[in-house]
Design brief:
This protein has 221 residues and is mainly alpha-helical. The chain is built from eight helices and no strands. α3 (45-65) crosses α5 and α4 packs across α5 (111-120). It is globular and about 75 Å long.
């Protein structure tokens, strides 16, 4: 007599921890990991948001806690909100641009899958940059090349994981995936151009109504 063993249902917190741990698997097994992330629903928005939050937080902390030998910061010219926006805006443009293009050409990924894939691909940045930031304060100027090389490797690693994620999520071949990533980067530039025109028009419109209001007010006086 065969007995079926019921699979234990995970609590929301356990599911969150499991999906967060799964980011490590995606880092070392990108093809299988990102396939399961979207098609087997192994990833969660909570874990993706956590990785993104940590990546942004570490990026900001690096300004203050990395040794001055490797990073020189002029705090009078730094606006933290604008600095954070300079990180989040390209991510949002990439997600929207990639989703918009791939939707037109039989891409299988939803916008949520693309977002989770990009966030999970940032895992190496969180794992490496945090300890690198700490140990940088014990490094000498002779180790500057080691520091910059390791930082570059991390960024290249993250870029490779994003490429792998997009290929698996959309079920694209290697060549088609590279082509659409290039198109996505071009779409990001187009969206930035449109946003600049849009905000420029709004600024000019607001300035026009303010000047019109001042003129009416002046004539009444």
């Amino acid at each position: 007599m065969m007995r079926t063993i019921a699979k234990k249902e995970l609590s929301p917190f356990e599911k969150y921890l499991d999906s967060l741990k799964f980011a490590l698997y995606c880092t070392t097994h990108p093809l299988d990991g990102f396939w399961d992330l979207s098609h087997e629903k192994r990833g969660t928005y909570a874990a993706a948001n956590t990785i993104l939050f940590l990546a942004v937080l570490i990026r900001v902390l690096k300004l203050k806690y990395t040794s001055f030998i490797f990073i020189t910061v002029n705090w009078e010219r730094i606006n933290i909100l604008l600095y954070i926006s300079s990180i989040l805006l390209p991510l949002a443009l990439f997600v929207v641009g990639n989703w918009g293009l791939t939707t037109l050409f039989e891409g299988k990924g939803r916008i949520g899958d693309i977002y989770k894939g990009v966030c999970y691909a940032m895992t190496p940045y969180v794992l490496v940059e945090l300890p690198l930031m700490i140990i940088s304060n014990g490094m000498t100027s002779d180790m500057a090349e080691f520091y910059s090389t390791l930082s570059s490797i991390v960024l290249i690693w993250c870029a490779f994981l994003i490429m792998a994620a997009m290929g698996q999520i959309h079920e694209f071949s290697f060549g088609k995936n590279i082509l659409f990533i290039i198109f996505t980067l071009f779409a990001m530039l187009v969206m930035v151009f449109i946003l600049m025109i849009f905000f420029s028009m709004i600024t000019q419109g607001v300035a026009y109504f303010i000047s019109l209001y001042k003129e009416i007010l002046f004539r009444r006086i």
